[in-house]
Design brief:
The complex is a heterodimer of chains A (232) and B (487). With 232 residues, chain A is mainly alpha-helical. Chain A contains 7 helices and 2 strands. Chain A has a two-stranded antiparallel ribbon with strand order 1-2. In chain A, helix 2 packs antiparallel against helix 3. Chain A starts with 27 loop residues before the first helix and ends in a 10-residue tail after the last helix. About 6% of the residues of chain A have low confidence. The longest helix of chain B is centred in the first third of the chain and has 40 residues. The N terminus of chain B is likely disordered. The chains are: A mainly alpha (232), B alpha+beta (487). Chains A and B meet through helix 2, helix 3, helix 5, helix 6 and helix 7 of A and helix 1 and helix 2 of B. The complex binds adenosine-5'-triphosphate. The site of adenosine-5'-triphosphate (ATP) has 24 residues of chain B, from strand 1, strand 3 and helix 7.
C-alpha cells in the first residue's frame, strides 16, 4: 500500500520524463475491436503481443533487477508470490518476474487455453470439441466461445494482465532511472499507455489493482488519452 | 482545468548508458527498434484492415441485386478471414511442424531443405540461418529492412516468403519450393547456353532486377546460385538480405583484407595443386576443366568466404554505389552463360578481386568462342564503369539494346521457357545436387553449433530471446497463403 504524502515524487512522475512519448494520439485506432473481427481473437492476439513486448522491457532491466530484494512497486507496496500451498511469500523481484513470465508463457502456449491450430469457421469438427469441451454444454455462452476459447477465457486474460501490470509497476518504481539512462522512457510510457487503453476497452484490469501507478494513469488521462485520434 | 501540481516539478538526470554492461545497452537498442516497428506495423495493420473492409463494402454496394442476407454472409466471411489472420499472428510455428524430405542447398550459416508441413502435407523450402552468426556483424537493421521487402513484395520475380520463425539457435524461413533448381546447377549441366537461351534468361533477369529496384532495393548479390527456376522453367530471385551472400559481400573488413592482399608486392603464387590453376585460360576445348572449376565454385558457395565473381568494382572501392551495380552482375552472368566461366574467375578470391578492379585490362573474350556483335556489345556495356553502364538510367535502356530485339517484355513470363523441369512428383529433387550436398561438410559455424547441441549445452537462456521482429508476415502474404491452400 502506498504511503500517502510525504514521499519524494517518483522519477517517472517528473518532467520532462513523464511527457516523453513515442506515439501521439489516444490509441483508439489500434485498441478498439475492428469491425467484424472476433472479440476473443482480438484480445488473445493483443495479450500475446503485450507479453512479448513487456518481456523485452524487462530483459533490458535484468542487469539491475538481479539486485532487487523484493518485488516492490513503490514505498509500502510489495507483491507476494502465492505458492502451491496458497501461502503468500515474498520473493526477490527477479525470481518473481521470472515465475510470472514463465507462467504467462505456459498459458499462452497451452492449446487448451489459447488455441492456435484450429482455424475459424471450421464447423464443429473433432478438433473444435477438443479445443473447448465445455462448448458441448448447451445454452451457455462466453467471451471467445465462437473462436474456440474455453469459458475461463476472460478470467485467464485478466489474470495475465494483472501480473503484467505488476511488472510495469516494478519497472516504473524501481528501474525508471535505468530506463532514462538507456533513453527508453518514451517507449515505455507509450507502451504502458497502450496497455492501459487496451485493458480499459476490454475490462481486463481491476481498478483496485492500479494503485501503484494511479498518478501516472491520471496524468495520462489529462494528456495522452485526450490526444487527437491516432493518425499517421 | 487547472494544471496539476505534477507539472511543476522538473528533474533532469544526465544520461550515462556507459555505466551499464554492453549486453544491456544492446538489449535497450533492440527494444527500441522492435517497439518502433511494432507500432508502425500496428498502425499499418489497422489501415490495411480498414482498406479491406472499405473494399468489401464498395463491392457489396455495387451489387444492388444481392440480398441483404447474402451481403451479411459475406461480411461474416470477411470477419472469419480477418480473425484467422489474427490467429496466425499468434501461432508459433516450430521446426518440428515440418518434416525434412531432403537437403537441397547449403550455406555458410545454415541450409535449405525441402520440407513437408506435417499437419496438411504441403511442400515448402525451409531455409535455416544460424542466428549467432548473423548477429555478430550488426546485421539487425539490414535483416529487418530486407525481410520487409520479401514479405511485402507480391512480385512474381521474387521467391515468396510465407512465414518466418525462430528458436534459440536458428532463424527459419518458410518459402515456396522452386523445383527447377538454380542457374548454377543448370550451367553445370549444359556448360554453355546458346544466344537464344541466354536471351531468355537475361531478359527475365532484367525484369526481376527491375522489380527489385522498383521496390527501392539493390540486390547486390546476383549470381547464378541465386537465380532459381520455378516449375515452368521461369526464374525467380532467391531471397536476399537474409542470405549469407549479403553478409559475405558487405563485410568491409573482408574487402579490406582482400585489398591488402591484392596490393602486396607480387603475392607469391600458390603452387598448391589446384584444378583452378589458370582458370582464365580455360577454353571451349577444355570443358571438363570448366566443370571441375564450376564444382569447386559450388563448394565455394557453401563456404563463408563466398565468391566475389559477380560483384561490381565500385562496391569494393567506393563507399557509395547504386542500383547499377546489379547490372554489372548481370553482365558477368551473361558472359558466363555464353563463354562458360565468369569473366574474372581466378584461383583465389583476392586474384578475382584484383581482376575486377582492373576490369579494363582483365576483361577478355576468348577468340575461339564466337559471340554475336550484339551479345558482346551488351556485355561490354554492362561490365563497365558505373557512370557509363547501361541501365544506370533505368532498365528500359537495357531492354532497348539490340541483343534483346524481338523480346516481348510484357508476356515474357507467360511464354514457354527453354527448359521446363520434368518432374515425377511434387517432391522431385532431380534438379538439385543432393548427392554432392551429402559430401559437403557443414560450415564451421554450423558444425560448432551442432556439436554444442549434441552435448546439450545449447539451451536458450531463461526468457532470453535475441530474436528480431520477424513477426511481419503481412496480410498480403496471408491472403496468398490462403489462396494457395494455406499453411
Ligand atoms: N525456395 C527455394 N526453392 C528451391 N531451392 C532453393 C530455394 N531457396 C534456395 N534454394 C536452393 O538452395 C541454394 C542455397 O540457397 P541460398 O542461395 O538462398 O542460400 P545461401 O547459399 O546460404 O545464400 P547465398 O547464396 O545468398 O550466399 C540455392 O542455390 C538453391 O539451389
Amino acid at each position: 500500500r502506498p504511503i500517502p504524502g510525504g514521499v519524494a515524487r517518483p522519477l517517472f512522475m517528473c518532467k520532462p520524463y513523464i511527457n516523453a512519448h513515442l506515439l501521439k494520439g489516444n490509441f483508439k485506432t489500434i485498441v478498439v475491436l475492428p469491425k467484424h473481427v472476433d472479440r476473443g481473437e482480438w484480445i488473445a492476439l493483443n495479450t500475446f503481443e503485450f507479453y512479448e513486448y513487456i518481456k523485452l522491457f524487462y530483459n533490458t532491466c535484468r542487469e539491475f533487477c538481479e539486485k532487487c530484494p523484493t518485488m516492490s512497486a513503490g514505498p509500502g507496496t510489495d507483491y507476494f508470490w502465492l505458492g502451491t500451498d496458497r501461502k503468500p511469500r515474498p520473493l526477490p523481484a527477479y525470481t518473481y518476474i521470472e515465475y510470472v513470465l514463465t507462467w504467462i508463457n505456459n498459458r499462452l502456449t497451452d492449446e487448451s487455453v489459447f488455441p492456435t491450430r484450429t482455424p475459424h469457421g471450421v464447423t464443429a469438427g473433432p478438433t473444435q470439441i477438443i479445443a473447448s469441451p465445455q462448448g458441448m454444454q448447451g445454452g451457455q455462452t462466453w467471451l471467445g466461445k465462437e473462436a474456440g476459447f474455453p469459458p475461463t477465457f476472460l478470467s485467464n486474460c485478466q489474470a495475465i494482465f494483472k501480473q503484467m501490470f505488476r511488472i510495469f509497476a516494478h519497472i516504473y518504481h524501481t528501474h525508471f532511472v535505468n530506463i532514462v539512462h538507456l533513453s527508453l522512457e518514451a517507449h515505455l510510457n507509450s507502451f504502458f499507455a497502450h496497455f492501459i487503453a487496451f485493458s480499459r476497452e476490454f475490462d481486463l484490469l481491476d481498478s483496485r489493482d492500479l494503485d501503484p501507478l494511479r498518478p501516472l494513469i491520471a496524468f495520462d488521462d489529462k494528456g495522452v488519452f485526450q490526444g487527437p485520434k491516432h493518425a499517421s | 482545468l487547472g494544471s496539476t501540481k505534477f507539472d511543476e516539478e522538473e528533474t533532469r538526470i544526465s544520461r550515462d548508458p556507459g555505466q551499464y554492461q554492453p549486453v544491456t545497452r544492446e538489449r535497450a537498442t533492440a527494444t527500441k527498434l522492435k517497439v518502433e516497428l511494432f507500432y508502425k506495423q500496428n498502425v499499418q495493420h489497422a489501415l490495411e484492415r480498414n482498406q479491406r473492409r472499405n473494399d468489401l463494402e464498395n463491392r457489396l454496394a455495387s451489387e444492388p441485386r444481392m440480398s441483404e442476407e447474402r451481403k451479411n454472409l459475406q461480411r461474416i466471411n470477411f470477419g472469419t478471414q480477418e480473425s484467422n489472420f489474427l490467429r496466425l499472428r499468434r501461432t508459433r510455428m516450430v521446426a518440428e511442424d515440418f518434416h525434412t524430405i531432403k537437403v537441397i542447398g547449403k550455406g555458410a550459416f545454415g541450409e535449405v531443405r525441402l520440407v513437408q508441413k506435417k499437419d496438411n502435407g504441403k511442400i515448402y523450402a525451409m531455409k535455416t540461418l544460424l542466428k549467432s552468426e548473423m548477429f555478430k556483424k550488426d546485421q539487425l537493421a539490414h535483416v529487418k529492412a530486407e525481410r520487409d521487402v520479401l514479405a511485402e513484395s507480391d512480385s512474381p520475380w521474387v521467391v515468396n516468403l510465407f512465414y518466418s520463425f525462430q528458436d534459440a539457435i536458428y532463424l527459419y524461413l518458410i518459402m515456396e519450393f522452386l523445383p527447377g533448381g538454380d542457374l548454377m546447377t543448370m550451367l553445370i549441366k549444359y556448360e554453355v547456353f546458346s544466344e537464344d537461351v541466354t536471351r531468355f534468361y537475361m531478359a527475365e533477369c532484367v525484369l526481376a532486377i527491375e522489380a527489385v529496384h522498383k521496390l527501392g532495393f539493390i540486390h547486390r548479390d546476383i549470381k547464378p546460385d541465386n537465380i532459381l527456376i520455378d516449375i515452368n522453367g521461369h526464374i525467380k530471385l532467391s531471397d536476399f538480405g537474409l542470405s549469407t551472400g549479403f553478409h559475405k559481400t558487405h563485410d568491409q573488413a573482408y574487402y579490406q583484407k582482400l585489398l591488402e592482399k591484392a596490393q602486396a608486392p607480387s603475392a607469391p603464387k600458390s603452387d598448391r595443386n589446384s584444378v583452378m590453376v589458370d582458370a582464365i585460360h580455360l577454353t571451349i576445348s577444355n570443358r571438363n576443366q570448366v566443370n571441375t572449376w564450376r564444382k569447386s565454385r559450388r563448394v565455394m558457395a557453401y563456404s563463408t568466404v563466398g565468391t566475389p565473381d559477380y560483384i561490381a568494382p565500385e562496391i569494393f572501392i567506393h563507399q557509395g554505389y547504386g542500383q547499377e551495380c546489379d547490372w554489372w552482375s548481370l553482365g558477368t552472368i551473361m558472359f558466363e552463360c555464353l563463354i562458360g566461366w565468369p569473366p574474372f574467375c581466378a584461383e583465389e578470391a583476392h586474384e578475382t578481386y584484383r581482376k575486377i578492379v582492373n576490369w579494363q585490362e582483365s576483361l577478355y573474350f576468348p577468340e575461339e568462342i564466337h559471340l554475336s556483335p550484339e551479345a558482346e556489345d551488351l556485355i561490354r556495356r554492362l561490365i563497365t564503369s558505373a557512370d557509363q553502364r547501361l541501365g544506370r538510367g533505368g532498365a528500359e535502356e537495357i531492354k532497348r539494346h539490340p541483343f534483346f530485339h524481338g523480346v516481348d517484355w510484357n508476356t515474357l513470363r507467360q511464354v514457354d521457357a527453354p527448359f521446363k523441369p520434368q518432374l515425377k512428383s511434387m517432391t522431385d529433387t532431380t534438379y538439385f545436387p543432393t548427392d554432392d550436398l551429402e559430401n559437403v561438410p557443414d560450415a564451421p559455424a554450423v558444425a560448432a553449433m551442432r556439436a554444442a547441441q549434441a552435448q546439450g549445452n545449447m539451451q536458450p537462456g531463461p526468457g532470453e530471446e535475441t530474436g528480431l521482429p520477424f513477426i511481419g508476415y503481412t496480410y498480403k502474404r496471408f491472403d496468398q497463403l490462403n489462396r494457395q491452400g494455406g499453411i
